[in-house]
Amino acid sequence: MGIFWNTSKPNVSEKEFSRMIGELMSKGFTKNEVNKIHEIFRGDLYEGNSSQKGIDRDEVNRAISWMRANTSRHGFSEERIATIEKELVERI
Questions:
Q1: What Å distances lie between residue 27 and 17, 35, 48, 77, 84, CA to CA?
Q2: DSSP string for 28-57
Q3: Has residue 39 got a pLDDT over 60?
Q4: Long-range pairs for 44-49 at CB < 8 Å and ≥24 separation?
Q5: Of 13, 55, 29, which Cα lies nearest the Cα of 64?
Q6: Backbone phi and psi for residue 47, each to the nearest 5 degrees, phi listed first
Q7: For residue 12, what is the DSSP state?
Q8: Phi, psi (5° rounding) for residue 11?
Q9: What pLDDT, in 10s, does the model give residues 47-56?
Q10: In terms of pTM, does the model score above 0.90?
């Protein structure tokens, strides 16, 4: 008989991500911006392995770094990126 424990990292769940989207919209983010955020994070949010679903701190850091380095690809200002990062980190 084995011992079972949860080895997953703290992360932003799909439910928390949805709440975050609502918060961003209340702060003036448009539907188009919200769709872009979802596109950026969907691979991490919906990973195949159930123990890896959600967005962990390393994934937030990678995505935010990518966003800062590629503003021409998504159009978010530094202020918007900082707001997204803050909302995600608060939910981890």
A1: 15, 15, 31, 14, 11
A2: T--HHHHHHHHHHHHHHHT-SSGGG-SEEH
A3: yes
A4: 45/12, 45/14, 45/17, 46/14
A5: 55
A6: -55, 150
A7: E
A8: -155, 170
A9: 766 666 789 9
A10: no
